[in-house]
Specification:
Belongs to the semaphorin family. By secondary structure, the protein is mostly beta strands. Helices cover 13% and strands 37% of the residues. Among the domains are: 111 residues, no CATH class; 172 residues, YVTN repeat-like/Quinoprotein amine dehydrogenase (Methylamine Dehydrogenase, Chain H, 7 Propeller); 103 residues, Immunoglobulin-like, CATH 2.60.40. The protein is elongated. Bound molecules: 2-acetamido-2-deoxy-beta-D-glucopyranose (NAG) (7 copies).
């Protein structure tokens, strides 16, 4: 009882803290198939893709399924599907049911990919040219060592991986999740495995941090959630972690940590608000935005809690690096054991036995990694469980000091989120799938700003550059704050890639003083019989705006239902005649959305003309209230 009570009160104070902010996290616009260009493809006969890779130079994607690799060419109508490769094409053993793709990695050179297939306790890897009509599986010297060292390593599914190519000694970093042997593996010339430990870990991301100034310090970072061992009723079952390894690491000496990481350090990630005790401890996904300065590289972590709420926190490599450089090791008495280095070393096999022993005993830091600027989550969704996060990593976006994120919901929708310094806006919700279809993967084709979304049964290709939908005035274009759009003196249009919308505040100053378009002033005349009922309708675009009706200088709020808001007039009488204006107001910008002139029918006249529109509108309203 005590526990329940405590949990409830924490939950309530959490809700209170979050409620005030939550309306800003409602999507500003809602887009369905009729609002944006969408192509849908049935996946019948094919496995659902677990990974989607946009092609750099054409409107096409490679979808990696469990047993096949398919190229979808969206330039063609109907969309052309080419099976590039199927498990069964390689060898007899792989024709078995057990055969599955475990690694699929784009290579440095255009068209080349590195792929691994596991079957019957063996793994076969090779290089493929996905541009050729029937790609063959080759293993040139560049990848030969990886191919050889991967042979006896079998993983169950596609996991995060990175291929680091450098002349003849390429290496593949790949994670393994689960209860046994989980951790980061390196294949290639120097094979390194994680130390044996029986912690359950699930990896969601892997990134490479290149140090041009000091290549010895090149590192790989991995993000994972670990299952909590302590079965404490109050602790949620997962803890989020970041871990790092040095790329120069070649393992310990013959007597200690041989071919095991000697440079690995782990730190817990915090996402929440320490003051209100809210925290999100299940790491779901990460997205990385590389920056020109390695320290500024940002990691967007998607988290959830036990109540099905989701949050996004941002970390910089600088913050992570600071913890690995300055924190005590967990359980260590000495703040800085002199013989334990925090930097990557030239030859890790030469580390003294005592150091290696210390490394083997603990690699966890005491200090947690806090979100950037010690801020709380940049985004919280109380009602929906977010499932994947993807970020636009095109060069011009990265240079513009802002980010466009795409976050999938477990009800089959996707949120487009704009993140700038100190500001987050859920710009749009794309209702891609209805009926709570589970989204398996998403990817953005940055060149044409199309999002490719996969479910179990469908591949959807949708336009996420919806500038024309924001409105026909400069102010409306600016209000959308969409880095993809700008005002060209006539329309809200997609930005050319160089001049991404920059401002941090809404800057109406860029908008010319224009004569109001005639559209605002179109007045619809409505004639109604005495005593009838009627609903006036006002179109809704931005859900962040307040809509109100004005009649005889009296304002009435208009509550939003679906794509409209209504004014309900009961028992029409003389007091109701006159002009009704529906206005929207957002950040001080006011616009007339609809105007009606209501007339009363003379008592002698027929009631018909008043009845017909009434019926239609009631049906609409009932639908929006109860569906
Ligand atoms: C891949 O195949 C295409 C078509 O056969 C060819 O033009 C291209 O040069 C090949 N690329 C590489 C890296 O071998
Ligand atoms: C792979 O095998 C299938 C049948 O198992 C065949 O239809 C397809 O053409 C083969 N593809 C290649 C690239 O050999
Ligand atoms: C691409 O290959 C070149 C030489 O083969 C290498 O110098 C470069 O680092 C590679 N790039 C990546 C991202 O691996
Ligand atoms: C959130 O969604 C995931 C994936 O659909 C599901 O496994 C999980 O149980 C959900 N969590 C809650 C609290 O609803
Ligand atoms: C966050 O920190 C960065 C660098 O530490 C600083 O430039 C930026 O202004 C800070 N942002 C906020 C919102 O405090
Ligand atoms: C964006 O801001 C930067 C720095 O303030 C400035 O140099 C650049 O010209 C701006 N770009 C545009 C398109 O306004
Ligand atoms: C109308 O909505 C505004 C903004 O949400 C609110 O401040 C105001 O109190 C509302 N007025 C009425 C009469 O409900």
């Amino acid at each position: 009882m005590e526990h329940l009570h405590l949990t409830l009160s924490i939950f309530l104070s959490f809700l209170m803290g979050v409620m005030a902010k939550s309306t800003q996290y409602l999507p500003r616009m809602i887009f369905t198939d009729k609002d944006t260009a969408v192509k849908r493809l049935s996946l019948s006969g094919h496995h659902a893709p677990v990974k989607i890779i946009p092609q750099r130079h054409r409107d096409a994607v490679i979808a990696v399924g469990q047993q096949e690799v398919i190229l979808y060419d969206f330039q063609k109508t109907p969309v052309e599907q080419t099976v590039l490769w199927h498990c069964g094409n390689t060898s007899a053993a792989e024709r078995s049911q057990d055969c599955r793709i475990t690694v699929f990695q784009e290579m440095n050179e255009t068209d080349l990919v590195f792929v691994c297939v596991a079957a019957d306790a063996a793994t076969r890897c090779c290089q493929m040219n996905v541009s050729s009509a029937s790609p063959s599986c080759t293993s040139p010297s560049k990848v030969k060592k990886i191919v050889d060292s991967m042979k006896s390593s079998v993983t169950a599914k596609v996991e995060p991986s990175i291929l680091v190519e450098s002349g003849d000694s390429s290496s593949l970093y790949v994670t393994r999740s689960g209860q046994e042997n989980s951790g980061i593996y390196r294949f290639g010339e120097k094979v390194i495995k994680p130390s044996n430990q029986n912690k359950e870990q699930h990896f969601v991301g892997l990134m490479f941090n290149r140090r041009k100034d000091d290549p010895l310090q090149n590192k790989v970072y991995a993000f994972y959630k670990a299952r909590n061992c302590e079965n404490h009723p109050q602790s949620y079952t997962w803890t989020p972690f970041v871990t790092q390894v040095c790329m120069a690491d070649v393992g310990g000496s013959k007597s200690k940590l041989q071919r095991k990481w000697t440079s690995q350090m782990n730190a817990k990630l915090f996402c929440g608000n320490a003051d209100t005790k809210q925290s999100f401890s299940e790491l779901v996904d990460v997205a990385v935005v590389q920056a020109a300065r390695w320290q500024d590289t940002r990691v967007y972590g998607l988290f959830r809690n036990e109540w099905g709420m989701s949050a996004v926190c941002v970390y910089t490599i600088q913050d992570i690096d600071d913890v690995f450089k300055n924190s005590k090791f967990k359980g260590s008495t000495k703040a800085f054991p002199l013989d334990r280095k925090r930097e990557c070393v030239e030859d890790s096999t030469k580390l003294p036995y005592e150091t290696l022993d210390m490394i083997e005993r603990t690699s966890e830091m005491e200090q947690w990694v806090q979100p950037r600027n010690k801020s709380g989550p940049i985004l919280i969704n109380l009602h929906h469980n977010y499932t994947h996060i993807h970020v636009d990593t095109s060069q011009h976006m990265m240079n513009s000091n802002q980010a466009v994120l795409f976050i999938t919901l477990n009800n089959g929708a996707i949120h487009k989120v704009i993140h700038r310094e100190g500001e987050v806006l859920v710009g749009a919700e794309y209702q891609v799938f209805t009926n709570h279809v589970h989204i398996l993967s998403i990817s953005l084709q940055t060149s044409c700003r199309r999002l490719v979304v996969a479910s179990n049964s469908e591949l959807v290709h949708l336009d996420v550059e919806n500038c024309g939908k924001y409105g026909d005035s400069c102010d409306e274009c600016v209000l959308a704050k969409d880095p993809y759009c700008s005002w060209d003196n006539n329309h809200c249009v997609p930005h050319t890639h160089e001049d991404v919308q920059n401002g941090t505040a809404v800057d109406f100053d860029i908008c010319p003083l224009t004569v109001k378009t005639g559209k605002d002033d179109i007045v619809q005349r409505v004639t109604l019989p005495y005593g009838s009922r009627y609903f006036l309708q006002c179109p809704v675009t931005s859900r962040h705006a307040v809509y109100r009706w004005n009649h005889l200088n009296k304002n009435t709020n208009c509550s939003v239902q679906d794509q409209s808001c209504f004014l309900h007039i009961d028992h029409v009488g003389p007091k109701d005649a006159g002009t009704y204006t529906c206005e929207s107001e957002e950040l001080g910008y006011v616009k007339v959305r609809a105007k009606y002139d209501l007339w009363l029918e003379s008592r002698a006249g027929t009631h018909r003309s008043g009845w017909l529109p009434w019926v239609g509108v009631v049906v609409l309203l009932v639908k929006s209230l109860f569906c």
